[in-house]
Each structure stands twice: as C-alpha cells, then as structure tokens.
Automatic annotation (TrEMBL):
Residues 17-240 form the Heparan-alpha-glucosaminide N-acetyltransferase catalytic domain. The chain crosses the membrane at residues 26-47, 59-80, 92-109, 115-134, 139-156, 184-201, 232-252. The keyword Thylakoid does not apply. This is Uncharacterized membrane protein. Keywords: Membrane, Transmembrane, Transmembrane helix.
Amino acid sequence: MTLSQTALPSDRPAPRRIAIIDIARSVALLGMILFHLVFDLAMFGFLPADTAQTGGWPLFSKLVAGSFLGLAGLSLYLAHRGGLRMRPYLNRLARVTAAALLISVATWAAQPDFYVYFGILHSIAVSSVIGLAFLRAPVFLTVAAAIVTFALPGLFDTWGLSVDWPASLGLAQHPQPSMDFEPVFPWLAPFLLGMALGRLGQRTGLWPTLEAPVAGETPLTRLSAWPGRHSLVIYLLHQPVLIGLLQGWVLVFGG
C-alpha cells in the first residue's frame, strides 16, 4: 500500500484551477459591480432614487447572485470530488464566514435598519455546509433537492405558512428588511445545481479535460481569470471604492 493510498482527505493535492470557471466568476463580479454602481449612483442622486428597484435591474441582481451561488456549488464539488479535504475546506469556510460577519457589522454601523444579516456571503457559507451532504449524491437527487428548495418559499406563501425565526431560512411572510437578503430558501437551489453540474461534468470527463495544462494559454486568459481567483477580496473592497470615488466626485464637482 502506497502513501497516496493511505493519505487523509486533507492531504490530497489541490485540484488544478480551471480557467473558464475563474473567467465565469470574473463576469459575475463585473455584473455585481455594475449593479452596485447603479445603486450607488441612485443613492448619490445621479440617477432616480428607485432605479435599482425598477425595470430589469431586480432580475439582473438575482441572476448575478444566482451565478455566484451556482459557481460556489460547482467549486465545492470540484475541490472535494476526490474526497473531502478538511483543512482547505475549513480554511475557506472560515474566510467566507468572517467576511460575512464583517459585512453584517459594517452595514449595521452604516444603516442599522437595513443591515445585511444574511446576504450572499452568509448564504454561500451555510450552503457550503449543507452541500457536504450532496458531495456523493446522485445528480437526480441533488437536482430534486434544488427544485424543492426553490419551490418551498412559494408553497409557504400559497399555504399561508410562516416561519419567522430564523429569518435566514427565507420562510417568513414578513422578513426584516435588508439591503441584501439571500436566505437559504430559495438560494440554496443554485448552489445545489452548481454541484450537480460539477458531478455531470466529472462523469463526462469535462473537468479533467479542462484541467489539463494548455500550452496556448494567453495573457488575456490569465488577465480575465484573475478577478475570479480573488473574488472574495474584490467583493469586500468594491463598494468602499465605488462609494469613495463618488463621494470624491461630489466633493470636487458637486452633485
């Protein structure tokens, strides 16, 4: 028996990054920054106050959030498809959880009536724990769970049911207002679909093919993938940067 055969899951080598997934995450980041720029422009009076809540912007924001959660589910599967690598998993979970708590504290200090008590980072953290139960689940079971997760809030509304605590479940009739709210139901659904996609891609040989070193990888490819490889830092910094730039513009040029 070789050392590799007796290695603990935590000792397994990290899988090779897949550029197309990092690029997809970069595109999602761009969409998020665009939406928050519109929100901030409205907040500073450069656009009508309700711009981000009208037209196609609410749907756009949901698509962006769903893409982040789907990519997070896909990444969880790809990182641990050969066995749970406990140390990297816990390190990543700790980083995401700490970032989520930082967002809660910062938004509570700025706007306590609308602070982020369960936003997208909170949702990714909780989904990453729930997702462990689906690492070895058949695709049909994971997809079925995603469908139930997506449908449950609507069913509760139809039946007149409400689970007020914890609000993070997303099953309350009148949840506490928040500037960013992605509760477990229905937002676990895209995460699970991402995991199902990961398993399908593994079964068809897609991911091993994309992981293979590509001699013709260009600087543009690496540049496009870079934001997606640093998504958590960019997520935390982009709003302070946008608000700081707009505040500076107002101070210099007026509103």
